[in-house]
Q: What sequence folds into this?
């Protein structure tokens, strides 16, 4: 699909027309940070809302306190409102109520919210059901096996999904505590050839300070057998 | 010479472009199962069917540092000595000597399904739901192989984005497979390489056109462990006994018929005596 033949890229058009960095002239458009005029990354981000120095912040919903710095969250983060009939649904969950780390991710067969791919018969056939992947250790703890229907809840809402137990998720120990993580695809919705609950019902309405990219990959949830 | 396909498990990413390409070329319909299979995790499809000639099997193998998420493409192996061909009473299944494809002629098929019994890989599937059911299986894209000299390959091979599937003369593919294994060993300081040193399908059941090399043993992907002996031997034995079995059963049935008839006659006679 894309290959470097020694002098040029063949097969596709590269963003910024870039040569590999060791061959690019300094300050030219061929350096990798194509959005920066210098072409290189910045350690002193003078134009950033949460700059100028990079910092580690915990997500809005985090199971631990920030181990790197006293400031738990990015103070310049965009915190949105999810107004439904005057009530703000964008509430923050705590690890006491929602002990499991959740992330949203994708699968090959569907794209974005699946509004197109879920209507294509062969793709719908390959990946028909909304699922949640969880590690074998967490599944044993909750008494869940692959094929069970589970309820996943966050402070924003609740969804039903097919549980799939996998070895690819394993418990990790952070700050002396054992943490579990589940994976939630967000390709399903209420209409289409195949339907299912949307993973984005659970995510918080929080965005990056500069770009507002939503923090949908890191929040807290609770999983139980439906 | 005959064609083959080499599947390289270290290049496969489980994207299933091959499954979709196969459905597209064969104009097979999609069928969402009522109960989604959870075998293999997010694998979805678990068996070939009359509408699904190929699918990807996912297996999570090993623990810790040895953990691998491995994939295998499942389809008709197009054996060099096909059990289905030997078991077929009417010759509907036949291996084309030129292309190596085991093709199915539904015009000859009588629906006995002996091919389903004979296949060691469990591939031929019957159209159970249809009123006029036939057997269906991977065709090796025989209609595309006529243009093989012009660069056409089976649909799945053409669709594969990582070149995990390679189409060519079977002998050349065997050489290529061993070459990859040896090169990987040579490049590894420990001398082990990333492949299991075995080309599955090179010798199994007398050789198959579809062959596999991978970083995991193919039996861990639930491909059957098979000896080098072709299954045609068993199929031929079973089929050669068939006329004797049929004749024997016929003789037995005729015998039982006459005995029963005789008994009924005697019973009727006794009844007559009682009445009379």
A:
């Amino acid at each position: 699909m894309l290959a470097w033949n020694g002098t040029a890229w063949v097969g596709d058009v590269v963003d910024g027309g870039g040569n590999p960095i060791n061959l690019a002239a300094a300050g030219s458009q061929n350096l990798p940070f194509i959005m920066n005029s210098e072409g290189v990354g910045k350690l002193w981000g003078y134009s950033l809302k949460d700059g100028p120095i990079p910092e580690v912040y915990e997500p809005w919903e985090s199971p631990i306190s920030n181990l790197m710095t006293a400031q738990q969250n990015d103070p310049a983060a965009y915190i949105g409102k999810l107004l439904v009939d005057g009530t703000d649904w964008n509430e923050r969950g705590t690890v006491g109520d929602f002990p499991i780390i959740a992330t949203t991710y994708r699968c090959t067969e569907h794209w974005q919210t699946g509004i197109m791919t879920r209507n294509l018969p062969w793709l719908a056939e390959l990946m028909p059901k909304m699922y949640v992947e969880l590690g074998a250790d967490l599944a044993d703890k909750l008494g869940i096996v692959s094929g069970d229907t589970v309820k996943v809840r966050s402070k924003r809402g609740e969804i039903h999904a097919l549980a799939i137990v996998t070895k690819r998720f394993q418990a990790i120990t952070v700050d002396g505590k054992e943490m579990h993580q589940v994976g939630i695809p967000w390709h399903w919705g209420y209409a289409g050839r195949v339907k299912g609950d949307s993973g984005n019902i659970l995510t918080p309405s929080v965005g990056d300070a500069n770009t507002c990219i939503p923090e949908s990959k890191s929040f807290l949830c609770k999983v139980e057998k439906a | 010479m005959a064609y083959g396909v080499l599947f390289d498990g270290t290049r496969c990413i489980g994207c299933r472009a091959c499954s979709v390409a196969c459905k597209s070329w064969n104009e097979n319909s999609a069928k969402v199962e009522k109960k989604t299979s959870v075998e293999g995790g997010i694998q979805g499809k678990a068996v070939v069917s009359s509408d699904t000639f190929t699918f990807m099997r996912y297996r999570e193998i090993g623990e810790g540092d040895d953990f691998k998420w491995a994939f295998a493409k499942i389809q008709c192996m197009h054996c060099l000595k096909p059990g289905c061909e030997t078991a077929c009473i009417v010759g509907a299944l036949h291996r084309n000597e030129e292309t190596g494809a085991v093709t199915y002629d539904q015009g000859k098929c009588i629906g006995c399904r002996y091919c389903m019994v004979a296949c060691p890989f469990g591939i031929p599937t019957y159209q159970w739901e249809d009123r006029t059911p036939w057997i269906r299986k991977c065709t090796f894209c025989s209609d595309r192989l006529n243009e093989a000299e012009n660069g056409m390959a089976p649909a799945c091979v053409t669709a594969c984005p990582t070149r995990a599937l390679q189409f060519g003369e079977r002998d050349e593919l065997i050489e290529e497979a061993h070459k990859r294994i040896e090169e990987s060993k040579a490049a590894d300081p420990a001398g082990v390489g990333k492949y299991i040193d075995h080309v599955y399908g090179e010798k199994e059941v007398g050789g198959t056109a579809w062959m596999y090399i991978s970083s995991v043993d193919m039996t861990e992907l639930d491909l059957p462990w098979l000896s080098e002996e072709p299954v045609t031997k068993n199929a031929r034995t079973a089929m050669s006994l068939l006329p004797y079995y049929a004749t024997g059963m016929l003789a037995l049935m005729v015998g039982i018929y006459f005995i029963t008839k005789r008994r009924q006659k005697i019973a009727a006679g006794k009844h007559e005596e009682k009445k009379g």
Notes: Chain A touches chain B through 25 residues (CB under 8 Å). Residues 135 and 169 of chain A are 4 Å apart (CA to CA). Chain A has two domains: 1-41, 78-225. Chain A has a mean pLDDT of 89.
